[in-house]
Amino acid sequence: MEMQSIKEALRYLMGFAGPSGFGSSSTADQVTAQDSSHSIPPNLTAIITGATSGIGAETARVLAKRGLRLIIPARDVKRAAEVRERIRRESPTAEIVVIEMDLSSIASIRRFCARFLALGLPLNILIYNATTAYAQSKLANIMHAKEIARQLKEKGVTINTVHPGIVKTGIIRDHKGLITGKPSFSRA
Length: 188
Hints:
- This protein is an alpha/beta fold.
- Among the domains are: 39-130, NAD(P)-binding Rossmann-like Domain (Rossmann fold, 3-Layer(aba) Sandwich), CATH 3.40.50; 133-166, no CATH class.
- 40% of the residues lie in helices and 10% in strands.
- The protein is built from 6 helices and 4 strands; from the N terminus they run H-H-E-H-E-H-E-H-E-H.
- The protein has helices at residues 2-13, 28-32, 54-65, 77-90, 106-119, 134-152; strands at residues 45-48, 69-74, 96-100, 125-127.
- The longest helix is centred in the last third of the chain and has 19 residues, at 134-152.
- It is globular, with a radius of gyration of 18 Å.
């Protein structure tokens, strides 16, 4: 059984589709493409941290394309505004609000929360994507999601956490020693 798991992991890393129909080379557009069995309810609001580059920016682009209202908290509001304009070129009717927030400052987080609440919008989806210490932050994210899920289970709230695997974004693009492309394996 362990050998089978290793084979499945290697197939995934090489881009082959798994049971979901998606693999490591699947795009956000492909994963979120609507089919007759799934539709996105109207008027959903998503807050996406880390949406000024990489996975966060791609997530924001695709969710806007699918009709979600986006709130982009950003330390660098100029960069966030550039992402918003890039998204609007593809999705002109996209509703995207940029609000300044620095996740390293509790005062900044509180200001963000007050500004968001003043908008009077629902919070349907929170995508916590901003990070610097990759492995540690991903583990912390998983543990945090498990605890929140436990606490909110009785209220019917669903909490998910997703680890994208190794993706060539700015956080690892220039590092040596990581398998970041399609690997090739040979027998010694």
